[in-house]
């Protein structure tokens, strides 16, 4: 799954994590201040070509070039340009889209302050001022759309390159793999699903981390007037504390109630593969795919799907209830501050948006759990291929039978 596309995956990912941590520490601890990253934020689309942003882009490019060059020399790999440089480009576009959210959050403050001034008639608002704010937002949105479309276009090619690498790797060992149940499906379908799912989860994880890095200082700065929480009282950094506690609670809750789902999804794919295989064999052999056999195989599919639906039902109850409460938790936490009149409309919207971004970053597993279930199932299926190729025992789940009850 990874050897086919990345050079020496374990040391590669470990070195990538360490190099990223080192580069970020150097930038936020020293280089960023030296090149103007700590200067007052620019409101509007000009933020993307401000001195601090351009210096960061150059710093990122140099860091990637050094890392990629070292790996291409020390461990040459036929897919290195796509796996290293392509991943770096996806990382950069993800960072850029986080900066779009930062730019929009910066726009929220003066815009809603203008709205409050207009509705309260505390000062006159001109047409030029109002539509100027609209044009500022349009500029940010236009950049976001262009970068987002181009990024998704590139990601599509990236995913197919990864699928190609896995396909070539497994086909080269097909003579040893063909005996595994559903082998054709695992090569034809699971490779694409694995690459797509890992890329999606990876991008979302990177986005969550970068969003947290970008918005945590913003939330701390904006919430200077928020000193207490309902029921808890006055504590340091109350909104940051609340975001962490609430998100950890949701993650733990959904992980607990969804713990059975990966195994059920694995069994689901296995019974589907058995049914499909019998139908394919019946196309050329009249003795295969007789009605009693197909009826029995389809009974297994029906039973497993009903088990999957039942388990997803109580999982979705927990997830939907949590997310519905999550929609108003920011207002509940700010209730003492709002009631006391310590905050105006502009900062309120900025705080709520920054709090939402920080909270969502901590809720990565909450939002991605259904996809993680699917990925674990695909990984278990492809892991059987790898075990067969290395003459290792098949994973124990391959010999397990589906439970007879929900």
What does this structure look like?
The protein is mainly alpha-helical and 406 residues long. The chain has twelve helices and two strands. The chain has helices at residues 9-34, 51-74, 80-120, 127-171, 174-177, 183-222, 238-257, 261-284, 291-333, 335-339, 345-362, 364-389; strands at 228-229, 233-234. A two-stranded antiparallel ribbon has the order 1-2. A hairpin with a 3-residue loop joins β1 (228-229) and β2. α3 runs parallel beside α6, α6 (183-222) packs antiparallel against α11 and α8 (261-284) runs antiparallel to α9. The longest helix is centred in the middle third of the chain and has 45 residues, at 127-171. 23% of the residues are buried. The mean pLDDT is 79.
Question: Short summary of the structure?
Answer:
The chain is mostly helical.
Task: Set down the secondary structure blueprint.
Layout: H1 9-34, H2 51-74, H3 80-120, H4 127-171, H5 174-177, H6 183-222, E1 228-229, E2 233-234, H7 238-257, H8 261-284, H9 291-333, H10 335-339, H11 345-362, H12 364-389
Antiparallel strand pairs: 1-2
Helix pairs in contact: 1-2, 2-3, 3-4, 3-6, 3-11, 4-6, 6-11, 6-12, 7-9, 7-11, 7-12, 8-9, 8-12
Number of strands: 2
Supply the helix-strand structural class: mainly alpha
What's the helix-strand series?
A: HHHHHHEEHHHHHH
The radius of gyration is 26 Å
What distance lies between the first and last C-alpha atoms, to the nearest angstrom?
Answer: 32 Å
**Low-confidence parts:** none
Widest β-sheet, arrangement of strands: 1-2
Q: Helix fraction? A: over 70%
User: Number of helical runs?
Assistant: 12
Major β-sheet annotation: 2 strands, antiparallel
Beta-strand portion reads under 5%
Q: What form results from the Cα inertia axes?
A: globular
Query: Mean pLDDT score, rounded?
Result: 79
